[in-house]
C-alpha cells in the first residue's frame, strides 16, 4: 500500500505542467483593430476618436489595477488587504482638493458654485442599500463589472444585462422620485454649513484618518 502511494505521488510530480497558450498574436490583432477603428472614428469626428482613445486607456488602467469600489470596501474584511481602499481614499482626496479649488475660485469671483449640489435624503439611503446588495451579488460595482466583462466573466455579463435593465427602470421612475422625494430633501453644501476652512481642512483630516486606519488594518498583527 505504501509503495503504491509513493509511485502514485512520483507520477503526479513527474507529470509535465500544462503549457500556457501564447496569446501575443491575439493581442497584436486586437491592438490593430483598436487603431483601425479609432482611425475610422476620426473620419467621422475628431472628438469621437478622442473619446475612443480615452475609453481604451481608462479601460486598460481599470483592468490592470483591478479597480473596484466594492472590492475596496470588501477586501479589508474578506482578504485583509486595504490597498484598493487606500487608492480610493487618495483618489477622493485628489478630486476633493481639485473641485474645492475650482469652487472656491468661482465663489470668490462672485459666481455661482459650479457643479451639482445634490439633495440628500431617504432616496440616498435606499439607493445605497439597493446598489450595495446588487454589488455584493454581482461581485463588483459598475467599474468592476465592466472590467470583468472585458475579461469574459460570464456572471458579470449577466450582471451587466440586469444593470442596464435596472438603470432603464430607474430612469423611467426618476421623474416621480424627483418630484415626490428629491425636491423635498435638503441640498447640503459643507462650506455653507461649516465655512470654507473647516469644510476643506476637516475633509482632509477625515480622509487622512481613514487612510491611517486602513494602513493600520492592513499591517496589524492578527
Account of the protein in words:
The protein is built from ten helices and no strands. It is mainly alpha-helical and 222 residues long. The chain has a domain at 22-65. The longest helix is centred in the C-terminal third of the chain and has 29 residues, at 154-182. The two termini are 42 Å apart.
SSE topology sketch:
Elements: H1 2-14, H2 24-44, H3 46-65, H4 69-78, H5 83-108, H6 122-138, H7 142-150, H8 154-182, H9 190-194, H10 196-219
Structural descriptors:
globular, 10 helices
TL;DR of this structure?
This protein has 222 residues and is mainly alpha-helical. Helices cover 78% and strands 0% of the residues.
Oligomer: single chain
Number of helices: 10
What global shape is seen?
Answer: globular
User: What is the string of SSEs from the N terminus onward?
Assistant: HHHHHHHHHH
Distance between the termini: 42 Å
Helix content: over 70%
Radius of gyration: 24 Å
Number of strands: 0
- Low-confidence residue ranges: none
Strand content: under 5%
* Biggest sheet details: none
Chain-averaged pLDDT: 83
What would you call the structural class? mainly alpha
